[in-house]
Design goal:
mainly beta, Thrombin, subunit H, 6-stranded antiparallel beta barrel, 1 helix, 42% strand
Length: 221
Amino acid sequence: MNGQSIQQRIWRGYAKAAAVLGSACQFSRPASGVTPTVWTDPVTHTLNNPLFCRYVSLNAEDMKYSKPNKYGKATWYALVDGCGLQPGDYFVGSEGTFFVAALQALLPILVVECNRTVTLSRVPRQTAVGAVSYSGMTQQNETPYVSGVPCSILQGTKGEKNEADLPGDVRLPWWVLLMPASVGTVLYGDLIVDDLGKRYIASSVELTDLGYRITAMQANT
């Protein structure tokens, strides 16, 4: 017996447990669909490129199921048959929308709960010199490179002082975003707009084997 056969046994055990403890979920791989830059159908609001349905049981990173999830935490362990899954795959069920962050050998499957759907855009850099038109970020020069991406957006630990500094001003909040690496290359300064119309500017972009962790400032325009 080797590591691969042990892994298959673990996943079969997860599948049996999920059939008893969990609920049916629809899995999708939108980044590999016909339109890889549009992940969610704008009419049906469902993820593109569906794969299959499987039972999933979630726990708050506690295989004994002895504690609930807490504020500010988007990650869960998922009991599901991991055969055929890839990091970045999504599943949707009665408990919400999640993406697979990691399928590490012989370890629990780590998933991220998604509470928002976003569009990522980039403003072309101004290369001309001299008297040129306004080159700041406007809706006219924002170029989306992927849309309909479910992700996690949770409050960060600090805020930024408003430049106007008026008596009634409050600090501009910071946010932490988690999304799969399959969205493509996210750069410092990229614009992220969620389904509520809130706009965020990527200030720090970290790419790991779990996907992107982005620190963003909420834009006040």
